[in-house]
Amino acid sequence: MKLIDSHFHIYKSEQAGIMAQGGQSFMGFKGVFEEALPILDRGRIRKIMALAVLPVFSMRNAAMIKWSADLSFAEKRNLHLELEEKLQKRLSSYNEWLCRISREDGRIEPAIIADATIDRDYMAEEIQSRIDEFQIKALKIHPAVSGLSPAAEGYRHIFEIASDRNLTVISHGGFAGEDLEGKLCSPENFKKALTDFPNLKLVIAHLAFPHVDALLELSRKFSGLYTDVSFVLRNSPLSDDDLCRIIRDFDPERVLFGSDAPWSDPEKDADRLLSLALSEKELEMVAWKNAAELFRLE
């Protein structure tokens, strides 16, 4: 059975990919473009959604902590303006690069960074430019990396643009990094966006693990809510029976296959998915049909 990997991270360099994993490879992958090609060439995974993530919040804090306490207000303001311009360029450069490698290989579809801590007008122009030039279909947000709850006002314009322009928002869900309880990306923090923007299509990734029950409750109220099984297929204590129950309770037409590479091995994750005691129709929907429809893939 063919598959679409709806949650696959690609970084511009080995250094960036390793740093994103905490300084060492999680599963032997470095997270670079070249690692995706042999997986696609083997043919079982036909397409991947390449998700961009940039730790803007951490980068900003790391720069600011080096500033002297003796700086005047004017000096700090100038440094802040310079820093924000630098971060904006880094974000745009990453999005541009990901869109271009995706255009060169039709098996890759980009989900660009939409960061709520970047200037609102700049971020809006960035998204619009990628729509105009590359016809992007998805935005990637990571509230845990951004240090900002998705219920915060800073995300509102991102959800609004996505809703108006028929873009799917893919968000991290559940625990991440030092947020071991997954408070920032818990399902209840997405309720405001889903309520305020009824046309919004939102993927809360990783089954929002460990907040699976809260995610299931949210799924019953909002038909525009999707999830994926990335990372949790082989990196969680969920049994086969657990996964089948969760997929069916959520709705097999709104669950996507994903690996979360480089944190997991896409092909081994595919093996786990296809071994589940789901019907052939349910497997087809999760493996590729849902993603093909949601992201408007050929």
Task: Give structural notes.
- This protein is of the alpha/beta class and 298 residues long.
- It has an eight-stranded parallel beta sheet.
- It has one domain (3-294): TIM Barrel (Alpha-Beta Barrel).
- It is globular and about 65 Å long.
- Helix content is 47%, strand content 13%.
CATH class descriptor: Alpha Beta
Low-pLDDT regions: none
Give the biggest beta sheet: 8 strands, parallel
Number of domains: 1
Would you tell me the overall average pLDDT?
Answer: 96
Question: How would you briefly describe this protein structure?
Answer:
The protein has helices at 14-20, 33-41, 56-64, 73-104, 120-134, 143-146, 156-165, 191-196, 212-219, 232-235, 240-250, 266-275, 280-294; strands at residues 3-9, 45-51, 108-113, 138-141, 168-171, 201-204, 225-228, 255-256. It has 13 helices and 8 strands.
Provide the fold topology:
Layout: E1 3-9, H1 14-20, H2 33-41, E2 45-51, H3 56-64, H4 73-104, E3 108-113, H5 120-134, E4 138-141, H6 143-146, H7 156-165, E5 168-171, H8 191-196, E6 201-204, H9 212-219, E7 225-228, H10 232-235, H11 240-250, E8 255-256, H12 266-275, H13 280-294
Parallel strand pairs: 1-2, 2-3, 3-4, 4-5, 5-6, 6-7, 7-8
List its salient traits.
single chain; eight-stranded parallel beta sheet; TIM Barrel; 298 residues; alpha/beta
